[in-house]
TrEMBL record:
Name the record gives this protein: Transcriptional regulator, TetR family
Source organism per UniProt: Shouchella lonarensis
Key words of the record: DNA-binding
Molecular-function GO term, any one: transcription cis-regulatory region binding
PROSITE patterns: HTH_TETR_2
Ranges of the DNA-binding region feature: 26-45
Length: 212
């Protein structure tokens, strides 16, 4: 029962923070949405701010684990690994798309929380992407180009559906939460990566992309 209550509060908080933002959401709103006593927010999480920060760190914990596991699956093949990272990270974000949007929006601000995330989780993300791209270049599988700009391009494509969902929805009627959209997007990304990195056309595709 305790874990069910905690989960209900977290799910309610994600919906409200996503819709109304941190400052537009009150503890009372969260308690009402979760159908729990307002005192349980403080009891389980220590208040609204602590709950919000927990949701952000929960997201990035899963995000980094997804990248690590994807790299280990194709440890000896940088080309397959970078595509696996893309595919699995996109699926991870889609599985919690409201939380992903909430977190990516928060990361556009300058705050203590954002700086902490930058120095921990995003530093790890940079390390993993940098290592993969360096490996591919050293082995001659990727063309040599400015590493900093390449990482920025690769990362932005990896999170774009969840940083700009309203743009996609209003202008193109595309929904990042839709499985068909994600398959189309990843098919395009696979071609884009091959062009960007100078990968050969016969590079194997990661598991899950055989649908194309």
């Amino acid at each position: 029962m305790r874990e069910d209550t905690r989960a209900s509060i977290k799910e309610a908080a994600v919906r409200l923070f996503h819709k109304n933002g941190f400052h537009g959401t009150s503890v009372r709103d969260i308690a009402k949405e979760a159908r729990v006593n307002i005192s349980l927010i403080s009891y389980y999480f220590g208040g609204k701010r602590a709950l919000f920060e927990l949701l952000v760190t929960d997201f990035f914990e899963g995000y980094i684990v997804t990248i690590e596991q994807s790299i280990h699956l194709d440890n000896n093949d940088a080309a397959a690994a970078i595509e696996s990272v893309f595919w699995n990270v996109l699926q991870y974000q889609q599985s919690c798309h409201l939380l992903a949007r909430m977190v990516h929006r928060e990361m556009t601000l300058d705050s203590v929380l954002v700086r902490e995330v930058m120095s921990t989780y995003l530093q790890k993300e940079k390390y993993f992407l940098e290592s993969l791209l360096k490996k591919g270049m050293a082995e001659g599988n990727f063309k040599r180009q400015p590493l900093d700009l390449l990482i920025v391009q690769v990362r932005n494509m990896m999170i774009l559906p969840f940083t700009s969902p309203q743009y996609l929805r209003e202008l193109f009627q595309l929904l990042p939460s839709d499985a068909n959209f994600m398959l189309r997007y990843m098919k395009h990304v696979t071609v884009w990566l091959k062009t960007l990195l100078g990968m050969s056309a016969n590079q194997k595709e990661p598991v899950g992309l055989s649908l194309f």
